């Protein structure tokens, strides 16, 4: 990331100081650096799914060094031209797209599911630091040694990155083999329809979203995330048998996906299969004990089975993970039924502060 920011600053400065670039030249150079992000992200994502991430990232870093390396000698020998800079900007940006796509999906290969939230947080912090350091450090470096020489430092930084990645020893399985006749265009269409399903669901289109997900699953019957999302939509529509079927199919493909047994638990509970639901929730929490919604789902099941103490305990854990007004409201209901009126009122007051417009919260608060 630091190298990417340094490239974005150093190349325009090299164009200005070495070639006397006009504003039009600088604009074209900036466009060359932006264009691959605009047009290549989808096909690159589809291609990245077909390769192991770490070798792909190492390959990108080495190629970045190879692409940037000739710029300083060309400047020194008065052979640097705009065509070379434009080509370097395009190729460097394209390699950056490939690297960024690969590293974002590499983290789940390194960490256990319960470590992912912390891992993503630390990665975001390091990315922010690298961006700031790259932008501010680029100016100081260019002032000290010149823009062309700064590109040399940039190239070396990519070799350092490749070396550190090569030292990572975590095993990464090979991607699943592609079905016979699988095409890149089909994969891109699959991603587009999946994204449209998410947009439709966010807008409340509960008919269009499952239709898109069904189309995605026709293209790729092993797309686990589509089963997860469609199961949730079926549950919201009251089609609990379909929700259960999708959760079971997803579990066949990815048994350690914590979302799927949670979805199965919700479906089983609604179908009245309480023991099966309890088992499914337990399985989900064994896989991901930090999932607040799963604790809350199991609490609803406990309440329906008459286990008020269990419901309060599960909701307490959910609230520790995520202070949601829904969780607080549900715990208030359970506490009220246990006769703990003051504790119930306290939860409702907290819920009202988080969601002042919720009429159910206000009605129950006035009733206690």
Structural write-up:
By secondary structure, the protein is mainly α. It is built from 19 helices and no strands. The protein has helices at residues 2-19, 23-39, 41-48, 53-68, 71-76, 82-110, 116-145, 147-166, 184-202, 208-219, 224-236, 240-253, 259-270, 274-287, 292-304, 308-321, 325-337, 341-354, 359-367. α4 (53-68) runs antiparallel to α6 (82-110), α4 runs antiparallel to α8 (147-166) and α11 packs parallel to α13. The longest helix has 30 residues, at 116-145. The radius of gyration is 27 Å and the shape is elongated. The termini are far apart. The model has no long low-confidence stretch (mean pLDDT 85).
Give the arrangement of secondary structure elements.
Elements lengths: L1 H18 L3 H17 L1 H8 L4 H16 L2 H6 L5 H29 L5 H30 L1 H20 L17 H19 L5 H12 L4 H13 L3 H14 L5 H12 L3 H14 L4 H13 L3 H14 L3 H13 L3 H14 L4 H9 L1
Alpha carbon gyration radius: 27 Å
Order of helices and strands: HHHHHHHHHHHHHHHHHHH
Helix-residue proportion? over 70%
Give the integer mean of the pLDDT values. 85
Q: Which spans have pLDDT < 50 for at least 5 consecutive residues?
A: none
Distance between the termini: 55 Å
Global morphology: elongated
Q: What percent of residues are in strands?
A: under 5%
Main structural class: mainly alpha
DSSP summary, beta strand count: 0
Supply the number of helical segments.
19
Task: Name the descriptors.
single chain; 368 residues; mainly alpha; 19 helices
């Amino acid at each position: 990331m630091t190298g990417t920011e340094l490239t974005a600053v150093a190349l325009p400065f090299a164009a200005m100081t070495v070639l006397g670039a006009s504003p039009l030249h600088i604009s074209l150079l900036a466009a060359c650096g932006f264009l691959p992000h605009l047009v290549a992200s989808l096909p690159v994502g589809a291609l990245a799914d077909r390769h192991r991430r770490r070798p792909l990232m190492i390959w990108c870093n080495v190629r970045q060094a190879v692409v940037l390396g000739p710029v300083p000698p060309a400047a020194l020998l008065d052979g640097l031209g705009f065509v070379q800079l434009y080509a370097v900007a395009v190729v460097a940006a394209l390699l950056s797209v490939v690297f960024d796509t690969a590293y974002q999906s590499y983290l789940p290969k390194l960490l256990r599911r319960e470590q992912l939230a912390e891992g993503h947080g630390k990665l975001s912090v390091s990315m922010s630091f690298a961006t700031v350091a790259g932008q501010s450090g680029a100016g100081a470096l260019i002032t000290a040694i010149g823009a062309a020489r700064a590109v040399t430092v940039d190239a070396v930084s990519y070799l350092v990155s490749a070396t550190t990645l090569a030292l990572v020893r975590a095993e990464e399985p090979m991607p699943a083999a592609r079905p016979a006749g699988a095409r890149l265009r089909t994969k891109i269409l699959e991603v587009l329809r999946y994204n449209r399903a998410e947009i439709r669901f966010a807008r409340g289109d509960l008919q269009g979203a499952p239709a898109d997900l069904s189309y995605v699953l026709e293209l790729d019957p092993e797309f686990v995330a589509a089963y997860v999302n469609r199961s949730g939509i079926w549950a919201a529509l009251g089609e609990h048998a379909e929700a259960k079927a999708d959760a079971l199919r997803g579990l066949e493909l990815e048994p350690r996906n914590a979302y799927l047994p949670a979805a199965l638990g919700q479906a089983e509970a609604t179908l009245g299969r309480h023991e099966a639901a309890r088992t499914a929730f337990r399985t989900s929490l064994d896989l991901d004990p930090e999932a607040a919604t799963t604790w809350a789902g199991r609490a609803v099941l406990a309440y329906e089975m008459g286990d008020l103490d269990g419901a309060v305990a599960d909701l307490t854990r959910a609230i520790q993970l995520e202070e949601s007004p829904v969780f607080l409201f549900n715990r208030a209901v359970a506490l009220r039924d246990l006769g703990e009126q003051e504790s119930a009122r306290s939860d409702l007051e907290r819920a009202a502060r988080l969601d002042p417009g919720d009429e159910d919260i206000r009605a129950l608060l006035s009733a206690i």
